[in-house]
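_Full entry_
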Amino acid sequence: MPPDIRGDYIKDNSPLIDEGISNLKKALELRPDYDDAMAYLNLLLRRKADEATTPAERADPSILKASRKRRIAAGAGVPVQAVNQLLNQFEQMQKMMKMMKGGNMARVLRNMKGMLPGSR
């Protein structure tokens, strides 16, 4: 997203994201097994983590060391483990996209089997 549009997006949507996170946490307190709320909460927390990163960090996630991860986690209001999990998922997706680019779809599907929930 271009930096000027990104700034406007964050300014306009950050309060909505914060409100959504708060409401979803309340819903999960009432009904902890509400999977859809948990999935949507994870998406919003990822968005908050993305908002807390700098352009250099978004361009090259390999520069994210412990201190940067702590800053991102604090800015997003999530534990550092959540930032680590997001980075691991990003790396897995990068690997899968590289395999897809090679045109070996059978190999991609075999490797995805281990990534899908409940397929381990």
Remarks:
- The chain has a mean pLDDT of 84.
- The chain has two domains: 1-51, 65-120.
- Residues 1-51 form one domain.
